[in-house]
Amino acid sequence: MSINKEQYLTIQEHLAPHNVELIAVSKTKPNEDIQALYDLGQRAFGENYVQELVDKEASLPKDIQWHFIGHLQSNKVKYIASFVHLIHGVDSEKLLQEINKQAAKHNKIIDCLLQVHIATEETKFGFDGPDLHHFLVSGRVASYTHIRIRGLMGMASFTTNETLLTQEFTTLKTYFDNAKMAFPNAQFDTLSMGMSSDYNLAIVHGSNMVRIGSLLFGARNYNK
Ligand SMILES: *Cc1c(COP(=O)(O)O)cnc(C)c1O
After folding, report:
1. Which residue, by CA, sits nearest to atom 7 of ligand 1?
2. 214 lines ligand 1 (CB under 6 A)
3. 192 in ligand 1 pocket by Cβ < 6 Å?
4. How many angstroms separate the Cα of 168 from the Cα of each of 31, 50, 132, 209, 213?
5. Is 101 in contact with 121 (CB distance < 8 Å)?
6. Distance 46 CA to ligand 1 centre (A)
7. Which end of the chain has fewer beta carbons closer than 10 Å to its terminal beta carbon, N or C?
């Protein structure tokens, strides 16, 4: 087993007083590692790849809450719709439409976060601030009757520059506060921001859900 138990307990201790939920990001990691963290009490796990998630869901305990945190292609929603707990990276209306359709087929409501583009890198997906605003005030959200938009998710730049990170987290928190006003009666309460390298700063700036992988499971090796 290669999970870092001490790190897990330290992180949980750190998060508890702030009411921040930990999503253990287990992409590329074997089932034994997930089971080991599960045995310590962890129930929320995050995955980025549909096929990997489907395989893991089939062989791991049924009370795991699976978070899909990667870039989700519309044509793959159908594979995870029956069991996914929260989809973090919703970055287009096309994807919302498909999630709504698949959720309806399963006669359920799927919780989603809208991903907002906050990083300086071109490659990170998400709504731009103004697009998000237009979408939220359009009223179209209400037509997705099988989706509950629970909040926002963002990924900061890949940097150790705290000034830049602070700026990006603050921007996302402002979008979150504004969006919350657009959903006065909804259960809009989740701000997913912060990873292994920046979660402390993210919490300082208002995150209430962090997605942590390498601190818990060690570095990922994509070449295996
Ligand atoms: C991989 C990933 C994480 C976890 O990254 P670590 O640096 O290993 O903590 C968090 N969020 C997203 C969207 C990811 O793809």
Report:
1. 196
2. yes
3. no
4. 34, 28, 16, 16, 21
5. no
6. 9
7. C
Per-domain boundaries in the chain: 5-217
Q: Which residue has better confidence, 6 or 133?
A: 6
Please indicate whether residue 65, judged by its CB atom, sits closer than 6 Å to ligand 1: no
* pLDDT (0 to 100) of residue 182: 81
Query: Model confidence at 191, in pLDDT bands (50, 70, 90)?
Result: very high
Helix (H, G, I), strand (E, B) or coil at 84: coil
Q: Which residue has its alpha carbon closest to ligand 1 atom 6?
A: 213
Give the atom of ligand 1 at the shortest distance from the alpha carbon of 217: 8
Q: Give the distance (Å) from ligand 1 centre to CA of residue 142.
A: 30
Question: Which H helix or E strand runs over 113?
Answer: strand 110-116
CATH of domain 5-217: 3.20.20.10
Confidence of residue 125 (pLDDT cuts 50, 70, 90): confident
User: SS3 letters for 138-195?
Assistant: HCHHHHCCCEEEEEEEECCCCCCCHHHHHHHHHHHHHHHHHHHHHCCCCCCCEEECCC
Q: What is the distance between the alpha carbons of residues 77 and 54, in angstroms, rounded to a whole number?
A: 11
Mean pLDDT of 193-222: 95
Q: Does 224 score more than 60 pLDDT?
A: no
Tell me how far apart the alpha carbons of residues 98 and 75 are, in angstroms, rounded to a whole number.
Answer: 8
